[in-house]
Amino acid sequence: MALRGHLLHGVPYGSLCLVDVVALRPWGSPFFRLVKEHADVFAQLPAAVHRGALEAYVATASQVGLTPEALAMLTDPWLGPIGQAAFYRQIAQADERFTADLEPLLGDVAAPTHIVWGAEDTWIPPDRAERLHAAIPGSTVTVVPDAGHLIQLDAPVALATELRRWLDDAVGQRTA
User: Fold this and answer.
1) Which of 5, 28, 82, 167 could bridge 11 with an S-S bond, Cβ 3.0-4.6 Å?
2) Which residue segment(s) compose the domain that 12 sits in?
3) Where in this chain does the record put each AB hydrolase-1 domain (predicted)?
4) What residues pair up with 119 in beta bridges, in sequence order?
């Protein structure tokens, strides 16, 4: 959202740190694409089957595995009749044209930008970090080992350390 606001609506930022962002096409796992094509069918799954598919899908975003508490935190909003319908509806409404709007503008990013990615991200592969880095002039990139798309859960200390380093550098650049 910050990247979109910056590029399409001129929102200024002192710096940007992009962590496993959906910013370049293609995106979406094979399961995501299957659901997108048949969202109306998936929305009708029995609750227990939906829960199983949802939990299995969300678990693939983690490299190290999710605790039962973390899995529940990520899946509970998508359970029940309202949550289940909303889960499949948001996938059905996802459209790469929104990403396509940004891609030609990435060279216009005016804020110092740092990109952080999980080395084992199976949802949005790490090659996107390098492509994004190449598209945003002056950007820097860090790929965090042993982390998937849920880098904040897979490698929280590594991510916090990287964010702190980036923020310290960004503040130092503005005060120098």
Assistant:
1) 5
2) 2-27+99-175
3) 96-156
4) none
Residue with tokens 């991510």: 159
pTM: predicted TM-score of the whole model, two decimal places = 0.92
Total number of domains constituting the chain:
2
Are 108 and 168 part of one and the same domain?
yes
- Are both 23 and 34 inside the same structural domain? no
| 79 lies in the same domain as 106 | no
Q: pLDDT by residue (tens digit) across 71-104? A: 999 999 999 999 999 999 999 999 999 999 999 9
If asked whether residues 74 and 115 sit together in one domain, one would say no
CA proximity to 4, closest of 82, 89, 106, 79: 106
